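[agent] plan:
  1. take the single chain provided in the ticket
  2. run structure prediction with default settings
  3. attach C-alpha cells to the ticket
  4. add a short note for the reviewer (M.T.)
[agent] executing step 1
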Amino acid sequence: MKKYLIGAIVGGLLIFIWQFLSFALVNIHEPAQNYTEKEGDIINFLSSIDLPEGGYVVPTVPPGASMDEAKAKMDSCAGKPWAIIQYHKAMEENMTMNMVRGFFTNVVMILIFCWLVGKFVSPSSGTIILAALATGFIVFLNAHYTNHIWYETFDIWAHLLDAVVSWGLAGIWLSWWLRRGKRA
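[agent] step 2 finished; step 3 output follows
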C-alpha cells in the first residue's frame, strides 16, 4: 500500500503540474476562456434580468415542450447564434482550496490506477505506460470529447494534449516506481 500511496502522490503531482502549465503558464485552453472588452456589458445585462444561478444553453427548448414544438424550435434556430452560459451571482476567491481539491483528486485517481495495475500479472513498463495512456484517452473521450460533440468546445485539442501528456507522465513515473526492484 505504501508503494501505491507514494506512486499516487508523485503521479498526482505530475498531473497537477501539467494542469498548471496547461491552464496557466502555457494557457493552451485560452480559446475556451477568451477575454472580451464587453464583459462588463454582458455581466451587467445578466445581473439586470435577475437570472438565477445555473447553466444555460441559449436557445433551447422549454421544459414540457412536445417533440413537434422542440423540432420547430430547433429548426427556427438553425444557422443562428447560440451560447452556453454558466452564471453565478457572486465570484468567490477559492484558489487555495480549489488547488488542494484538484491535487487530492489527482492523487485519488492515480491511486485507483495503481490499484488496477496491481491486478495485472507482472506488467511490463510498456504495459503500464500504455495502460496510463489508455486511461487518459478514456477520460478524454468520456468527458471532454463527448461534451465537444454536443457543445463544440473551443479547446478540444488542448484537452486531448492534457490527456496524453499528463497520463503519459504519470505512466512513465509509475512504470519505473511500481516495477522498482522487480526483475525484468
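[agent] step 4 note for reviewer: The first strand starts at residue 54 and ends at 58.
[agent] ticket updated
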